[in-house]
Amino acid sequence: MATPQEPARRPDARRTQAERRAESEQRLLTASVELIVEQGLARTSLADIGRRAGASHALVNHRFGSKDELVDRIIEEATRYYAHAARTRIGARTGLDAVLELCALYLDLVDGPDPIGRVHVVLWSEAVAHSASRRNAQLEWDRQFRDFVSGLIEDGVAEGSIRADVPVADTALTIVGALRGTAMQLLVDGGIDLDSAQSLIRELVLSDLRVRPDAG
After folding, report:
1. Is residue 147's pLDDT more than 70?
2. Cα–Cα distances in Å, from 50 out to 11, 17, 61, 150?
3. Which one Pfam family would you cite for this protein (predicted)?
4. How far apart are CA 109 and CA 77, in angstroms?
5. Same domain, 36 and 75
6. Average pLDDT over residues 125-142
7. What is the mean pLDDT of the segment spanning 72-78?
8. What is the number of alpha carbons within 13 Å of residue 208 lying toward its C-beta?
9. What are phi and psi of 140, to 5 degrees?
């Protein structure tokens, strides 16, 4: 007599509670990012996010509690996204080459198909008029970005690909500011050519950082 087979298990039955929770939170984060990029944070409610994700308002409240907590989670997610992309794209590049590649990558992500690559620009633009706690979340993102750029510049100075007298912190601030301003323009003006913008940023960075030949 044939041994009876066990009934097929549904895919959901094989997932742990932690996995289901993580997937649920990821759907909510994805919906949040999409809506914020489409219409801004101020016009996005937790109820909107629930509807987009196919979840209840109560679940969104349970996961995030408030908009400030939601923004913190989105920034964490965007930070991981950028860090992974930077490690992959920069690879073995160092010094000036790494700075140039990072600048190109940043604008590629802002102009790319995944809204997680530009949500921080939208949040940054709205943070100016909001509470100190929300501004602080954006300031922390900027500090991490500037610190990363500063590290690349310092490596370039050490290896000789970047001039030794460059003011590291001020230059990192200028580069991040130029990238952020260009990113804002890309979001509001669909007619801007990405390649041209990247070329201009590249020339600005090269003119400021590359080692200058000795006079005479």
Report:
1. yes
2. 24, 20, 9, 40
3. TetR_N
4. 14
5. no
6. 77
7. 91
8. 19
9. -65, -40
